[in-house]
Backbone:
């Protein structure tokens, strides 16, 4: 008996005979996660069987039996967790074992013709990733749309702009929110671009070098909704850049969400009081009854930070030799988790993007605490008074420094004070009038004067929001086209299976 066992090939020796410790501490834990991918596997296998039948590579009655069994599982919702045996280590080998039990060894033995587990997994991975990316993109578009709406509602609401948490220049809440929505639109665009790049069919590449059977890869590409086929078989099964690109798009989405969360947390600080979160978004303290903790935005921020560390590990795992490997399999699983996490955090963030309320009086009132109009005062000295910029900057900055040292605030930054300081420092009078100074020192005038493309003026913010909305509409059309293409492919695949 021992000799007979040794006469079997390594594949037959190992199937269903995994070491109990490995089973207990690795494969059992993975079974629950991989069952959700079964529909992608089944559809890849259905397309492959249809191609084998079309090309007369296997007997038609065998193809009919295989297609019937695979289609039966898809019709019933796929392969569920309770159907999986950890001893067969992954979803594909479980499916092959189940077919053997259902149809017999002879019929099931035709399924592996002209392909490998490597190209099958590469195909199903691309299909699952592309669909999850579309779901993520839609959540980002929804979030950006909320910010665009909030920006439009607050297009005239003045507030300080900050760098390094110090007041910089006056702007509006609409301008600030439009900046955040602009970043989110780029996130959505990156996701769509990732889908376009990965949507190529690797099926038929076999283990790495293709097959001698007369296969039709373009046919399976159409049945599975791919835009075409990969043009190098080794690259088809070894590639992991599409996973890293997809995970990177998700990470950048999380990063934008984290930066928005940071703004929300800052706005809700007691000392600022710029905004408040609704009660269903905050948490309180078990010991300090006054606390309104912004734990939900902080959760989004934390997830982004953790994801950044995870991504570094994924990138390291992809530095293996250029071939199919377990390292890349793990990266696929991480990529799916990445995309799903980004989707969840985007939906969470959209809840407080929609629910946050702003204290517009405090936002505007905060401008009285900083010297945020001084850049425009210096620019007015240059533009209207023909003063060299560095001299104008030094003059205004010198007065602000003197006021700061004396413990005085922006209310003391007056035309008379600057005029006296200029005479003292330069021996010359100011080259601008009081009216010109007062206009430059006015918050609303400050904001309105930046009327160039991308500036803070009302018409420029409106133009920006209009452009953003058009870009979102274009993205929606692309996502709808993806979904229509994949739905049509599913119809073709069902028809092909019925036609065997």
Residues:
């Amino acid at each position: 008996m021992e000799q007979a066992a040794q006469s079997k090939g390594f594949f037959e020796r190992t199937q269903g005979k995994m070491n109990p410790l490995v089973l207990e501490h690795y494969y059992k834990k993975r079974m629950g996660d991989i069952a959700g991918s079964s529909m992608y596997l089944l559809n890849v296998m259905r397309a492959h069987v249809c191609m084998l039948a079309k090309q007369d590579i296997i007997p038609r009655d065998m193809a009919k039996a295989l297609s019937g069994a695979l289609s039966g599982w898809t019709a019933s919702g796929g392969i569920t967790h309770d159907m999986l045996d950890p001893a067969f280590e992954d979803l594909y080998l479980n499916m092959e074992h189940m077919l053997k039990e259902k149809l017999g060894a002879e019929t099931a033995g035709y399924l592996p013709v002209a392909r490998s587990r490597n190209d099958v997994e590469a195909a199903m991975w691309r299909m699952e990733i592309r669909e999850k990316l579309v779901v993520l993109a839609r959540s980002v578009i929804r979030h950006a749309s909320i910010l665009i709406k909030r920006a439009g509602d607050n297009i005239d609401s003045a507030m300080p702009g900050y760098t390094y948490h110090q007041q910089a220049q006056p702007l509006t809440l609409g301008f600030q929110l439009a900046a955040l929505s602009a970043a989110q639109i780029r996130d959505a665009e990156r996701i769509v671009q990732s889908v376009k790049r990965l949507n190529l069919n690797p099926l038929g590449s076999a283990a790495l070098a293709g097959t001698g059977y007369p296969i039709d890869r373009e046919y399976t590409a159409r049945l599975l909704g791919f835009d075409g086929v990969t043009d190098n078989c080794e690259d088809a099964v070894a590639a992991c850049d599409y996973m890293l690109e997809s995970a990177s798009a998700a990470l950048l989405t999380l990063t934008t969400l984290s930066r928005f969360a940071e703004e929300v947390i800052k706005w809700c600080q007691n000392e600022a009081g710029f905004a408040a979160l609704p009660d269903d978004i905050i948490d309180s303290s078990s010991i300090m009854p006054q606390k309104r903790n912004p734990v939900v935005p902080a959760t989004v921020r934390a997830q982004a930070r953790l994801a950044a560390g995870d991504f570094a590990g994924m990138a390291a795992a992809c530095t293996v030799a250029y071939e199919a490997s377990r390292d890349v399999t793990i990266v696929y699983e991480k990529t799916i988790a990445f995309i799903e996490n980004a989707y969840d955090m985007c939906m969470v963030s959209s809840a407080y993007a929609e629910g946050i309320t702003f204290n517009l009086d405090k936002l505007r009132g905060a401008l009285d605490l900083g010297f945020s109009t001084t850049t425009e005062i210096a620019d007015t000295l240059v533009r209207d008074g023909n003063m060299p910029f560095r001299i104008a900057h030094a003059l205004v900055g010198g007065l602000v420094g003197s006021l700061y040292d004396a413990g005085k605030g922006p209310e003391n930054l007056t035309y008379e004070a600057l005029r006296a300081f200029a005479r003292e420092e330069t021996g010359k009078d100011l080259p601008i009038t009081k009216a010109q100074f007062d206009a430059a020192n006015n918050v609303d005038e400050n904001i309105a004067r930046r009327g160039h493309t991308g500036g803070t003026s009302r018409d420029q913010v409106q133009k920006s929001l209009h452009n953003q909305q058009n870009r979102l509409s274009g993205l929606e059309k692309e996502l709808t086209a993806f979904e229509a293409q994949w739905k049509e492919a599913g119809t073709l695949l069902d028809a092909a299976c019925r036609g065997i």
